Amino acid sequence: MLRIHFTTADLIRTRVAAAADPFWEMVLSRRRLFEQDTALVMRPWVEQMRPQSGSALLRPGLVALAALSPKGPYFPDFMTPGEAAGGFDSGMQAVLSTPKSRLSAEIAHLAASADVPAWVRRVADGEPEVLAALDQSLRSYYETAIKPLDTQIQSRVDADRQRRGRDLLDGGIDQLLTGFAPMMRWRAPVLEVDYPVTRDLYLEGRGLRLVPSFFCRGTPVALADPGLPPTLVYPIDHDSHWEIAGNKSLADLLGNTRATVLHAVDGGATTTELARRVATSLASVSRHTAVLREAGLIETQRRGAAVLHTLTPLGESLLSNDRRVAAPSLLTA
């Protein structure tokens, strides 16, 4: 079990990341690729990627990820840098500029619990040609296996964040942390996380960065080094997204895409957020929101450079009734 100890300052500084982390997604996706009991939502991706696992585009990255982030009690934190919050390029630059002393220490720690190939020991020495090869391997893996899923991943992260945001607005940080059950248990001031090893992490005023992940499955994952900015990667709920499949009444009334837009507005969303959630263009979303606004189902207000769409009481009533009629088939995985 992992026990995360909060102070009042930590509660104030705890945040949920706005997007999945590309380096965590790479590490965790490799594990999903070779699981026997593939999750249904990941099956299309696995069926597409497995035949390519021996290709020049995927194999070097898979080999690198297997060596540097094996499934087990430990893998080096330099493989999942906090700078990756700024995107793949920022994260890769952080990996390549990791101090040699840290590379050496973390790979030595890895060697205590896993077989370490000779080329990994050269990474520990910071050899430029080996780091360049690592860059190329991970970049190719990311471009082939992760980047094509950007829209799908972000739409599900947005849905998860909306749920977390509601918890925060309704009951503050206490309800936000309670809402992560059953994968975590909030027993103030300690957050208990099911974990393969027993650890205590004291935040000491730094707060906790919670990172939603598409490829994380089962239990959350934390950085190994307690001295690094506290980070906890957790699996998103793949049932919480915006496609309408089994429902006919609202889709027949509004059209499938427009009905999906109306569901995506629930809780409030900008035009850009709606485009991500529905996986369509900004122009298309603008047309649909104009119709929904004229029908009295949504309201639109400008907030700085963006516009925020929210449901009207009529729109809320329509969605509430539609959910009662369609449950439990309204939202699909």
From TrEMBL:
<keyword id="KW-0238">DNA-binding</keyword>
<keyword id="KW-0804">Transcription</keyword>
<dbReference type="InterPro" id="IPR036390">
    <property type="entry name" value="WH_DNA-bd_sf"/>
</dbReference>
<dbReference type="InterPro" id="IPR001845">
    <property type="entry name" value="HTH_ArsR_DNA-bd_dom"/>
</dbReference>
<feature type="domain" description="HTH arsR-type">
    <location>
        <begin position="252"/>
        <end position="323"/>
    </location>
</feature>
<protein>
    <submittedName>
        <fullName>Transcriptional regulator</fullName>
    </submittedName>
</protein>
<dbReference type="InterPro" id="IPR051011">
    <property type="entry name" value="Metal_resp_trans_reg"/>
</dbReference>
<keyword id="KW-0805">Transcription regulation</keyword>
<dbReference type="Pfam" id="PF12840">
    <property type="entry name" value="HTH_20"/>
</dbReference>
<dbReference type="InterPro" id="IPR011991">
    <property type="entry name" value="ArsR-like_HTH"/>
</dbReference>
<dbReference type="InterPro" id="IPR036388">
    <property type="entry name" value="WH-like_DNA-bd_sf"/>
</dbReference>
